[in-house]
Amino acid sequence: MVSPDTGLFTSGQPLDKDEKFKDYESRCIRRKDLLEAIVNELPPDTIRYSSKVVTIEELDRFKIVHLADGFILKTKVLIGCDGINSVVARWLALPAPVRVGRSAIRGLVEFPNGSGFDPKSYLSFGGGTRFGFRPVDDKNVYWFCTFASSQVPSYDDEIQENPMKMKQFVLGLINKMPREAQEVVEKTSPSNMSYSTLKLRLPWDVLFGNTVKENVCVAGDALHPMTPDINQGGCSALEDAIVLGRCLGEAFLKKSSENDDEFDRIEKGLLKYGKERRWRSVSLISVAYCVGFIQQSKGKVMSFLRKVWLSNYTSTALLKMANYDCGDLVS
Q1: When you count CB atoms within 10 A of the terminal residue's CB, does the N or C end of the chain come out lower?
Q2: Whole-Å CA distances, 166 to 101, 106, 152, 307, 311
Q3: What DSSP designation does 199 have?
Q4: What average pLDDT does this structure show over 304-315?
Q5: Rounded mean pLDDT of 18-38?
């Protein structure tokens, strides 16, 4: 199934030893399309764009959120989905994410006449580099390349802001990988490429830190930033949303008496959400890091272990993390 240092991993192939993965399905969608689908389900003017959180204050049991554009929000519930550099996470005193010593360059390429690739994921790794791609539809293909940050020449910091240099850098890293991989990068428009330094929140910070406090919580990358090695960043954020919606829905709807305090119910709902997502978040962060470390590490010993044993482990781990049921969002 996996040919670690030279071949392609195709996610559409079954794992021989695991019957439950033989008919699994995976999908790749553009963030823009996903966001538009969600926004279209909301009432008009629900979302306020370009409104970065600056500070958070308390007014009795409400939270007052100051935005960069000067707007002020008074919130009964504050859910921080403000990304890896979350202001809400800092307010909760969650330790900041840390660098893992790796970086990523990502791209989206269009084949006007069709890519010809099957709707499967392809992955090559070894020698300190991890490269993969997957069709989004018949004409568009998403790809990524992760590598040790030390591989970027110290004199060439401009590469992070120069898409043409990004492209040449990636082509240099994958010049011994299959021709399909190189073609995907060669045909990518420089305007459709991006560079990022990979970070994660340490698992024990999630396990023992404050992910919930009173009527405030975090979700998505604000809660569990992870390396992209198991393709669960966006998926886990959707899991958070379902669990959070369910827990808050119960808090708002299940009033037991006239003297029942709504803020107490909100806090209990958020605590339930935090408890349910804590271990799942720890697992996602830990498995993603381990998969990336195993697949991308170089050296004779690691290459040998990867070929004879670890490649099967990483493939199984990736699928098992995706095969997760967070429950239904019951209205």
Answers
A1: C
A2: 18, 10, 10, 30, 28
A3: E
A4: 71
A5: 73
CA-based radius of gyration for the chain: 22
List the beta bridge partners of residue 199.
99
**Vertex 78, ends 72 and 80: CA angle to 5°?**
100
This prediction has a pTM of: 0.87
Measured in residues, the chain has a length of 331
Give the C-alpha distances (Å, rounded to integers) separating 52 from 148, 262, 303, 304: 31, 28, 44, 47
**172 contact partners, CB below 8 Å, separation of at least 6:** none
Nearest to 24 by CA among 119, 114, 117: 119
User: What whole-number distance in Å separates Cα of residue 220 and Cα of residue 97?
Assistant: 13
Position 130, amino acid: R
**Residue 108's pLDDT is what?**
94
Token pair for 138: 């018949």
Q: Is 254 helix (H, G, I), strand (E, B) or coil?
A: coil
Residue 22 reports pLDDT greater than 70: no
- Residue 282 tokens read as 């720890």
pLDDT given for residue 51 in this prediction: 84
Question: What's the rounded Cα separation, in Å, for the pair 107 and 191?
Answer: 9
